[in-house]
Amino acid sequence: MASKTVLIGGGTGFIGKRLGEILHKNKYNVLNVSRMPSANSITWTTVETGLPEQTHAVVNVAGQQTMDFTRSWTPGFKQNVKNSRVFTTRALATAINKSSGKPKVYVVVTGVGAYEPSETNKYDETSPTTGKDFFSKLLVEWEEAAKVDPPVRLVIIRSGVVLGRDGGMIKNMILPFFFGLGGPIGSGKQYLPWIHIEDLTRLITFAIENENVNGILNGVAPHVITNGEFTQAFAKALSRPAFLPVPEFVLNFLLHEERAMLMTKGQHVTPKRVLDYGFKYKYDKIDEACMEFAHLFPKK
Ligand SMILES: NC(=O)c1ccc[n+]([C@@H]2O[C@H](COP(=O)([O-])OP(=O)(O)OC[C@H]3O[C@@H](n4cnc5c(N)ncnc54)[C@H](OP(=O)(O)O)[C@@H]3O)[C@@H](O)[C@H]2O)c1
To answer: Domain NAD-dependent epimerase/dehydratase spans what residues (predicted)?
Structure first.
């Protein structure tokens, strides 16, 4: 039997690459959508003409990195952050709606920024999204752009910070922490919704393979932690102290308050629907997760 094709928008990135490896191991044929054509990538212009034949599932994990510290938070950069998510998500949804041989499912990874940052509110997938700040407004447009016509299932995974050695927050933090220069951000009391990269990619695969899964899923570990608790767990896994707090005003100054809020503020988010579906986490506790990626050099 020919293997099933999964098309991944942004398949060259931190999440997309790992997802591609797992799917490949599970005998799927993986094709990326990238700005750069290559042997196993098609371009966004090609997607405008439709989906490749026999596409079984479509996933979107494309998006300009928000925490690219080399880029100032200018109106142009904000537009890029937004369009790279909304336009790519819409381009794949349009291609799915136009296609004659429909894929079974469209999985889009968005973020917990959909929920208003708070130290008191508690959110699960049934909680309303408020759309007040830049990120929650972006989330509303992003998820709206994902709409596909039935019978294609739509699964939107609102991911917390994705933790893994090769990208995202850990790649940025490991050096300072390794040299004992780590510490909590601001008061450290803000919640830090998180998920290990293995679990996020397993959850995407779970959504592809289980026909009863649809709608919003919170892509977070069930263990709710604060930034201060994360700092302690990561420093402990690296056997380093982490006493140097990063003041909130410094981040606001360096990154711009609107962007710095991704680090200085947080949300208490639980994965109620994910657990109801029976998904089993590999890393449901932050200490175990940190032990997996707290190493400076690649593991043999
Ligand atoms: N990492 C996290 O902690 C996290 C948490 C929550 C949500 N997410 C969401 O998950 C998605 C992927 O995150 P990631 O960490 O894997 O990001 P990443 O490593 O930066 O990769 C994203 C991919 O998106 C493509 N891309 C970048 N800029 C683009 C642009 N202007 N237009 C079109 N495509 C562009 C790139 O692929 P090509 O160069 O091949 O085009 C890149 O490989 C993002 O939408 C992000 O918001 C991530």
So the answer is: 6-212
- The CA 169 to ligand 1 mean position distance, Å, reads 13
Rounded to whole angstroms, the Cα distance separating 66 from 258 reads 11
**Domains located in the chain, CATH noted:** 5-293 (3.40.50.720)
CA angle 148, 152, 101 (to 5 degrees): 105
Block residue for tokens 């880029």: 71
The whole-angstrom separation of Cα 167 and Cα 163 is 8
User: Of the residues 14, 142, 200, which should be mutated to test ligand 1's pocket, given the most ligand atoms within 8 Å of the CB?
Assistant: 14
- pLDDT, tens digit, for every residue of 113-163? 999 999 999 999 999 998 789 999 999 999 999 999 999 999 999 999 999
Alpha helices in the chain, H assignment, sequence order: 14-25, 44-48, 75-98, 134-145, 168-178, 197-209, 227-238, 248-255, 257-264, 272-276, 286-293
> How far does Cα 71 stand from its chain's mean position?
20
* Torsion 253-255-258-261 (CA) sign: negative
Residue (of 281, 278, 266, 272) closest to 125 by Cα position: 272
Determine the Cα–Cα distance for residues 237 and 215; give it in Å rounded to an integer: 36
Cα distances from 208 to residues 5, 159, 215, 279, in angstroms, run: 11, 16, 12, 13
> Is the Cβ atom of 152 under 6 angstroms away from ligand 1?
no
